[in-house]
Every structure is written in structure tokens, then in C-alpha cells.
Amino acid sequence: MKAKTREMAAESALTARDAAVKAAKAKEEADVTAREAAAVVLRLFDNDAELVSELLGVPAEELEREAKPVTAARAKEIIESLRARAERPRTPRTRKPRADAANSATSDAPNPVVTADGSRADAA
Question: Cα 85 to the chain's mean position, in Å?
Fold first, then answer.
């Protein structure tokens, strides 16, 4: 019994450690993405930190601090990839008809209508 408890505790510790390592890696990736995004937006707005601060609701000092470690070359690279994505033609997606819409269209019962006060009324 004691050996089984120890085994379960060790397994639990390894699982928790693995989860912590994954979370730390995800946090670091998110931090890098946030820093790069701050650098890119500042660069696109001609380094007008006050304007970007107002638009995003983030203090200008924080934006500048986040953007500082990002190299100009990396910011340009991200901007170029954004421009390339923006220039690609968007392919329209075909919408599949909703199953409940198809069923209700063939039904003889009138569709319920919700009135302005939130109550329901039958469609005339």
C-alpha cells in the first residue's frame, strides 16, 4: 500500500512538473508574440506611442517597453508577412445550410417570433 501511494505521488509530481514546463513555454511564446505585436503596431503607426496607446487602451510606456527588445529586422519581417497575407485573395467559403433551418422550412407550423419585450409570439 505504501509503495503504491509513493508511486502515485511520484507520477503526480511528474505530471505536474510536465504541465508547469509546458505552461512556462506557452507563456514565453505568448510574451514574445505580445512584444512583437507591440513593436509592429508602433512601427506601422510611425512610432506614435501616444496614438497607439489611445487606440489600444494600453499605457504608452508599457508599449514602448514591450517593443524595445524586438529588432527592427524582426518587426519588418512580421510586417511583410502581414502585408502578404492581406494581399492574398480571400476565397469565399460556401455555407452549409443549417439542419434546423431546413427542417423548419418544410414544417407547417409557423416560426415563433420574439417581440421587443422578449416574449414570444407566433409569426403571422
Answer: 17
Residue 77's pLDDT band (boundaries 50, 70, 90)? very high
Tell me which amino acid residue 107 is: S
Question: What digits encode the pLDDT tens for the residues 62-75?
Answer: 999 999 999 999 99
DSSP letter (8 states) at residue 58: S
Alpha helix positions (H), the chain: 2-44, 49-56, 60-67, 72-87, 99-106
Cell numbers that stand for 58 in this block: 494600453
- Quote the CA–CA distance of 1 and 103 in Å, as a whole number: 59
Amino acid at 48: D
User: Would the pTM count as exceeding 0.70?
Assistant: no
What dihedral do alpha carbons 70, 75, 77, 82 form, nearest 10°?
A: 130
- Distance, in Å, from the CA atom of 8 to the CA atom of 14, rounded to the nearest integer, reads 10
At position 99, the amino acid (one-letter code) is A
pLDDT in tens, 95-111: 787 776 555 555 555 56
